[in-house]
Write a structure and sequence with these properties.
Number of strands: 9
CATH architecture of the largest domain: 2-Layer Sandwich
Number of helices: 5
Strand order of the largest sheet: 1-8-9
Radius of gyration: 26 Å
Strand content: 15-25%
CATH topology of the largest domain: Alpha-Beta Plaits
Helix content: 25-40%
Largest sheet: 3 strands, antiparallel
Order of helices and strands: HEHEEHEEHEEHEE
Length: 199
Amino acid sequence: MGEEKKKSQNLSRRQFVVGAGAAVAGAAVGGIVANQLAPREAEAARGIPKSGHIEWIADNCAACSRCLMACAVYHEGAVAPQLSAIKWAENDFLYGFRFRKPLHCKQCDQPECYHACPLKDEALCIDSRTGARYINKDKCTGCEECIEACPFDVPRINFDKESNKAIKCDLCKDRRGGPVCVEVCDKKATTFVSKEGRG
């Protein structure tokens, strides 16, 4: 019995050593993975402030494009769809005719466009007061990384080829009356949803 007990103790020690080695190796691998994820995880831990967003109400929309034009005029001083931060999608099958709908930036909680920008916090920024994710055109290099990173089938970021700058909704963050697209819509088809809930 004494011999068996000694073998059992030796086996237990061996299991402990192997187990401890595996734990150390696991911790090392975990550390490598954590280091690779560090920038994104660090930002998540730090807390990217939430933002409100524009919500589209399909039943109210007349597809008049007033919101799109108002956006371009307010931000760029021109009536030009390509200069609007609101994208448009067309559906040839809705109600038997071509129906257009506005596609607003969702101001994502973890914005892929922001993480993808090589000049994050310089060219693609987050407003400390409103939480709006916006583009600083003075710093934008036109790399289009933000557009590529947008998770939606139709990216919610436009691009002005003439100025070589990305165009993105900033929720009219500096406008006293709030988002101009909401104000001009007489059908109440667009509404602002604040980060706390309905605006």
